[in-house]
Specification:
211 residues, 7 helices, globular, alpha/beta
């Protein structure tokens, strides 16, 4: 567990992130709301991250995703691209790989998120390698905790190995994919898991609206 303390605002780095995000959401969320969410995102990531060098940057990206989800919930749910959320226990393997594959193949048809019920300290090395092989940037993948607004914004929630830990929100479509756990598996097994996920994503995309 990281010993990195949560910075107290006004921390200049978090303050800069607050300003950027507040500008992006002018007229929708106040600077105080953005600041509170960014501080909370930093605190949540700091609790489990093994590498904290870029934690402020990751916290800003995590907060941007949460604000987008919150705006969708408060705005017009059910409109725009389908929103798919992948959830596994640690958000360090299957859910990251599934999200990257869907993002790569969806061509903008889908808004994709991933999260973990008990996020791990970092992406598993073989997952990072396979992400690179699929054309994704492993630096863009980092374990994130599951938050209420992200679940509520999703049209489809796909769980993989996290049991009943994912909250159920009425009106959402829930799928459970019994995909093997890649934790500690050799690279050949991780590639087989990738291929399994890719087949499932093909079926998922076939069932989504074309626009």
């Amino acid at each position: 567990m990281s010993a990195t303390p949560t910075p107290a605002l006004p921390d200049e780095r978090l303050a800069a992130g607050t300003a950027r995000l507040a500008t992006r959401h002018t007229g929708r969320f106040s600077a105080e709301t953005v600041q509170s969410l960014l501080t909370d995102s930093y605190r949540r990531l700091a609790e489990t991250a093994s590498v904290t060098t870029h934690l402020v940057v990751l916290a800003e990206r995590f907060t941007a995703e949460r604000l987008d989800a919150l705006a969708h919930v408060q705005g017009a749910p059910g409109t725009g691209p389908a929103r798919v959320l992948f959830v596994c226990s640690h958000n360090a393997g299957r859910s990251q790989l599934a999200a990257a594959l869907l993002q790569h193949r969806a061509g903008g048809r889908v808004t994709v998120s991933s999260a973990g019920t008990h996020p791990g300290p970092g992406i598993e090395p073989h997952i990072a390698q396979v992400l690179t092989e699929t054309g994704a940037d492993p630096a863009e993948a980092f374990p994130k905790p599951l938050t209420d607004e992200v679940v509520r914004a999703a049209d489809i929630v796909i769980t993989m190995g996290c049991g009943d830990a994912c909250p159920v929100v009425p009106g959402r479509r829930y799928l459970d994919w019994p995909v093997a756990d890649p934790d500690g598996a050799p690279i050949a097994v991780v590639r087989a898991i990738r291929d399994d996920l890719d087949r499932r994503i093909t079926d998922l995309l076939a069932g989504l609206p074309s626009t």
